């Protein structure tokens, strides 16, 4: 019996310092190794937003060691689903990929109080994505 193919999801935002980092962390946390997870930015920041790190820590997920990564064509081509979060035209588009655009407030320059509702909305969307992909939550 062959093992089923693991779906691959790429989260993209401009700086890869907030929304895409939270989404990738939630998907990794909730799906484990049943989904391949990537995140990247079209113009990556130097570090992940500290308020985002704190908000995720409150949710029991440590992303303090994460670093923003540059978006590459290879990352897009290797992904089944590409979810953009406000990067607009700077995201490459390849035929045959499934693209979703999650319109979410940008946590850049915001404190933890402003990041919490963004974090919670991302978590809900990740749960919906898992259901669409037919992947059972591990956590």
Automatic annotation (TrEMBL):
Pfam families: LMWPc (PF01451). The keyword Transferase does not apply. SUPFAM superfamilies: Phosphotyrosine protein phosphatases I (SSF52788). Keywords: Arsenical resistance. SMART domains: LMWPc (SM00226). The keyword ATP-binding does not apply. Residues 7-132 form the Phosphotyrosine protein phosphatase I domain. Gene3D superfamilies: 3.40.50.2300. This is Arsenate reductase ArsC. It comes from Actinacidiphila acidipaludis. The lineage of its organism: Bacteria, Bacillati, Actinomycetota, Actinomycetes, Kitasatosporales.
